[in-house]
Amino acid sequence: MAKVTQISPGAWQISLPFLGEHEIVGSYLLAGENELAIIDPGPGSTLEPLLASIRAAGFDPQEVTHILATHVHLDHAGATGSLVRQLPKAQVYVHSKGTPHLVDTTKVVSSASRIYGDHMHMLWGDIESTPVERLHTLEGGDILKVAGRRLEVHYTPGHAIHHVVFFDAHSGELFVGDVAGVKLPGVDYVRPPTPPPDLDLEAWSDSISLIRSLRPDILYLGHFGAVKEVPQHLGRLREKLSAWGDFILEAMRNGKNEAEIIALVIEKTQPELQRVTRDAHTLQRYEIASNYAMTVQGYMRYWRKKHPARLQAS
Questions:
Q1: Distance (Å, rounded) from C-alpha 158 to C-alpha 165?
Q2: I want to staple 79 with a disulfide (CB 3.0 to 4.6 A). Which of 25, 41, 96, 128 is the partner?
């Protein structure tokens, strides 16, 4: 069962039960002026708990008018196609680079199937296409008037080429998807989620600078929840993105293969998280939110694609 918590007037945070865990995968619900919006509906495997959470917040899911996707990765937007088939009023808003992947999910499903194999349906549930007539394309600089709010759309690539954030300048709330990293509740630790194929460290650094320039009062992460110490959090994320990247680059230059690099990254980085938490279960929860294998795969693809010359051993 999902959990729903009111976080501010007209806004709720939904914790979707993913792999039996709460407070790892989240959606946000906005309500106002007879409109109901979902930010990042999550994977198809948690669609029913999402609908139940909307009801628990006191609303009829059939009244949902907007589905806003920060990006189209399956843990954030996998349920979109299935939702619009159930919710007759819902219109979908996504960056132009993500639109094709919602209209035709073939490429996304094929790519994910190579990674997850027999676990695909257990993890992500049904992945249905979104009818093109229900889709609206976003670009950075757009303004959405949704549920009584004025949401600024800012293009924030780095984690994904189709990533945007939604900023309510009036309330200071910024819904950031994955571009502000992974930080689970009660743990003073931020982790860079760097899956393939779109990792771009230069673009991500620019996106972090953009977020800082907005001076939000609070970040709402997809994984998971509220961050109030915004400059400190973003500084730690930027530092880790760079340090982990340099470490993996050096391992690649030394001829290490993927499995060896994964082991090295765990050995290098996990002790810091262990010191912060002293809880083996928390280590597992971070691995669900952003696992080491995909982290390394993202960096390796980035170095090979963006900076092949730097792979030459000195």
A1: 12
A2: 41
Q: Is residue 118 part of a domain?
A: yes
* Residues sharing a CB contact under 8 Å with residue 209, sequence separation 6 or more, in sequence order: none
Q: Domain span at residue 96?
A: 3-237
Q: Is residue 168 part of a domain?
A: yes
In this prediction, the residues of the chain whose per-residue pLDDT falls under 70 are 1-2, 313-314
DSSP 261-302: HHHHHHHHHHHHHHHHH--HHHHHHHHHHS-HHHHHHHHHHH
Check which CATH number belongs to the domain holding 42 and give it: 3.60.15.10
Task: Give the distance from CA 297 to its chain's centroid.
Answer: 17
> What pLDDT is recorded for position 2?
66
Please count the CA atoms within 13 angstroms of the CA of 194 that sit on its side-chain side: 28
pTM beyond cutoff 0.85: yes
Q: Is residue 305 part of a domain?
A: no
Pairing relationship of beta strands 143-146 and 149-155 according to DSSP bridges: antiparallel
Q: How far is C-alpha 269 from the geometric centre of its chain's CA atoms?
A: 21
